[in-house]
């Protein structure tokens, strides 16, 4: 019932030279049985959206400000993402929580702004290695869910990404049992809070997803796709991840 989603987070990577990677993805996946999303840096969003226009690939931002407009140097508003062709926005990524001290309350405010602006909010959660080793993972995820998610989310307006911080960019991934435990916990929390819509909200896994490990991660029932950083930058890496998701969920 939930359609798979393969989402690429380019982070602070990509210039005009990277647009060819998306041309290659577009050619390789003309009628995918899962959704595909690329979130480039803001400077590339307009150009990348022009490349993907009319294709099966959606585009989005990596952050938005809670306000609609104003004196916020360096920030972008939800409506600017829409104006540049984006349909989604990643919010509360652990790198923004660390680099910019974003709190759950700020992530929640940004998510409200995204929804008001008509964007699909991809809200990120995840524990640190210290928290995992202290046995606090589910407590941390529970409190991030409670604090970062606004009321009224639906399967059409929100996506959750579970990204253990210690797995991001490290080549380490949790065991399949650990991924299953957290995704089942998130699903139960979403259903308790949002009812039937909690069944429809997709929950992605993120953190060192590669072509070699994608199939086993996608075999987990409550994993509806992936948020992919490093392996989304090159079509030759991202394309097999999309294909693995199609094989598992398409
Ligand atoms: P990674 O990043 O795939 O490079 O580990 C994932 C993410 O931070 O979204």
Q: How would you portray this structure in words?
A:
- About 45% of the residues lie in helices and about 15% in strands.
- By secondary structure, it is of the alpha/beta class.
- It has one domain (about 5-250): TIM Barrel, CATH 3.20.20.70.
- It has an 8-stranded parallel barrel, surrounded by 6 helices.
- Helix 1 (about 20-30) packs parallel to helix 2 (about 40-50).
- The protein starts with a strand and ends with a helix.
- The structure holds 2-phosphoglycolic acid.
How would you characterize the largest beta sheet?
A: 8 strands, parallel, barrel
Q: Spell out the helices and strands N to C.
A: EHEHEHEHHEHHEHHEHEH
List the ions, cofactors and other small molecules found in this model.
2-phosphoglycolic acid
In quaternary terms, these chains amount to single chain
Structural class, judged by helices and strands? alpha/beta
CATH superfamily: Aldolase class I
Poorly predicted parts: none
The CATH architecture classification is Alpha-Beta Barrel
Taken from the alpha-carbon principal axes, the silhouette is globular
**Helix amount:** 40-55%
Number of helices: 11
User: In which order are the strands of the major sheet placed?
Assistant: 1-2-3-4-5-6-7-8
Count of structural domains: 1
Under CATH, the topology can be stated as TIM Barrel
What is the C-alpha radius of gyration, as a whole number of Å?
A: 17 Å
Summarize the structure.
This protein is of the alpha/beta class. It has helices at residues 19-28, 42-52, 78-83, 94-99, 104-116, 129-133, 137-148, 176-194, 196-200, 211-218, 235-249, and strands at 5-9, 35-39, 57-61, 88-91, 120-125, 158-162, 202-206, 225-228.
